[in-house]
Specification:
This protein is α/β, with parallel strands linked by helices and about 350 residues long. Helices cover about 45% and strands about 10% of the residues. The mean pLDDT is about 95.
Length: about 350
């Protein structure tokens, strides 16, 4: 049977350029149309929105998001309840921050119009009702969350995304100046998420001309930023392109392993990817030298020896989480992936990390 051709849906409106953030008030005023209120989710590093001349009106709701851990379904449910309890639905949800904050904005916008717990929607195409309009403003680049159709959440049972067209932002604002103050390590780990998206896309069997063009350009720009004279603007575009590439293909082995690391240790997605990628020479041999050159050039110390003392029970759970990533694993290893990427192979890899 021939697989159906995907119908690519992209973020309808993108504003890119130094100073773009100064046009946000105008955008939001159009949505407010006089009486509507807005819900802001803001990374705790950027709590003072006035510094960016972003207006928060008296009826608006403002949540500072703790990004020390990845977003949890219980936290999404709490935000949703608070917003619903406060009165009418907002006219817009604005997320201002890194990948975690962007994912919170997506998940809450969906949960405001879909009943139950956000954990009920972890999977593919489960929300049924149109979400609240949302604006994403990334302050660190690489996750591709600004353009992806997923928001990854840690649930009681699993780490998995709400993969849905409803996860896409309606508007994104990309202002390279916002990346100026990101700490080096965080910028690096997040950017490597983009690098790895591109590698996994290019090495996967789901690859097609559409994904390839985006992945190649994303790789070029990430390289330029971390091995050459690239700018924050380059990395912002790389992130978007890397994200677009995987929307139309898939990630691979590294992401499947990284999810287990995040589950066990609460490690952020980008760092989890970097830890895992360093052990995946067998799967991505053509990119290892360059990856390690970037790690070295930016004085990044990859955490090691994490899994050696884990309980058997936790290791088994991590393997379960890895094996939930069926599409990425099929993309990386082909339809026979279950016979190639066995529990023993995964365990052996984790024990080396
Ligand atoms: Fe990723």
């Amino acid at each position: 049977m021939v697989a159906p051709i995907k119908n690519f849906l992209s973020v309808p409106k993108t504003m890119f350029g130094v100073g773009a953030i100064s046009q946000l008030n105008e955008l939001l005023d159009e949505r407010r149309a006089g009486s509507g209120h807005i819900v802001f989710f803001v990374d705790h590093y950027f709590k003072d929105l006035e510094k960016y001349n972003i207006r928060v009106d008296s009826g608006d709701l403002f949540f500072q998001v703790d990004t020390s851990e990845e977003p949890k379904t219980v936290v999404i449910d709490e935000y949703t309840k608070k917003i619903k309890d406060s009165g009418d639905l907002p006219c817009a949800v604005v997320a201002f921050g890194g990948g975690s904050v962007l994912d919170v904005g997506k998940a809450v916008s969906i949960m405001l119009t879909n009943d139950g717990s956000s954990s009920d929607y972890q999977g593919w195409d489960l929300p049924k009702n149109k979400p609240v309009y949302k604006v994403g403003i990334p302050t660190v680049s690489g996750t591709g969350a600004e353009v992806s159709r997923t928001c990854v959440l840690m649930g009681p049972e699993k780490k998995q995304g709400i993969n849905s067209n409803f996860s896409l932002y309606d508007q994104i604002v990309l202002d390279p100046n916002l990346l100026e103050t990101v700490p080096t390590e965080q910028a690096f780990y997040t950017a490597m998420d983009c690098y790895i998206h591109s590698v996994e896309s290019l090495c996967g069997c789901y690859l097609n001309d559409f994904s390839k063009a985006y992945a190649e350009k994303a790789l070029d720009l990430t390289r330029k930023r971390f091995l050459g004279d690239g700018t924050h603007g380059d990395m912002m575009i790389a992130s978007m392109f890397g994200g677009n590439s995987i929307v139309y293909s898939e990630v691979g082995v590294c992401h499947a392993m990284s999810y287990g690391l995040s589950y066990a240790f609460g490690i952020h997605h980008g760092e989890g990817n970097v830890i895992a990628f360093d052990y995946l020479d067998q799967y991505y041999p053509d990119y290892m030298e360059e990856f390690r050159e970037m790690v070295k050039k930016h004085n990044i110390t990859i955490r090691r020896g994490l899994c050696a003392d884990l309980s058997e029970e936790m290791l088994e759970k991590m393997i379960d989480i890895t094996l939930l990533m069926e599409k990425p694993l099929e993309n990386a290893l082909g339809t026979d992936w279950r016979n190639i990427f066995t529990r023993d192979v995964i365990k052996e890899l984790y024990l080396r990390m």
